[in-house]
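seq:
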Amino acid sequence: MFDGFEVLRSPDQLRSLARRWHAEGQKVAIIPVIGPVHDGHIALVREARSLGHRVAACLVDLDGGGLPRDIDTDAEELEHARADAVIAPLIEKYCPDGFRTRLRVGGLTDVLCGKVEQGCFDHAVLITLRLINQSRADLVLISELQWQFAIILGQITGDLDIDTEIRIRPALRAADGTPCSAEASALPYPERRLAASFARTLADAAQAIRSGCDPRSVCSNVGAALVDAGFETVDYLELRHAGTLMRVQDPATSGPARLFASARLRGMRLLDNMAVA
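struct:
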């Protein structure tokens, strides 16, 4: 614990704190915390602190459900990680009655997760953009596990000429390769072992594509294998451009490409993505 930690619930509180930090010549970093806090979020907070930034962790959630959040527990864990503040937006303050604005980007918000659960980014993107605006944040750090969310934010901040860097960082992974997430942590054994096989299978698929195998055949075969292994369903397993999220047929000529996957286990959706080219 350290002095000065604050839990912010309104735009005015964030504006006031961020103005003070900037007046002191300090830079401000925002860490969007999607879902309950886990070790991956803690790693991002510590990285932002290592850069010398003031750190505000923002508790946001994707529309469409997810694991329940305990704000007090999340705030305590983030304070231990030496975040300077936690932003826990009150919905009536950030999306009051009559609030109608939605931020959607063609080709980004309607593919992958946005196609599986339409509108799932509406709340998180809007809240995060408002927080960036209110804080005049210099930096937003996001795990590569939330690659699509980061690309959407980057496109909007670029289009609107918002001077905030959106930086994607490698996902923190367990020894078995599973990326840290609240969903993976909540799985009982042996489903936890099956979740580990998800990461290994995706890595094998990425390597097969790098070696010249047809991406469509690889994705089809791997998707079927995951269902056979015990996953309830595979929402998507697709090769897409890392920046535009457009489908990629030939990674040898496409530029940077990533393999994106979403599969369900015990009703929870596990996400992962890996570089291919």
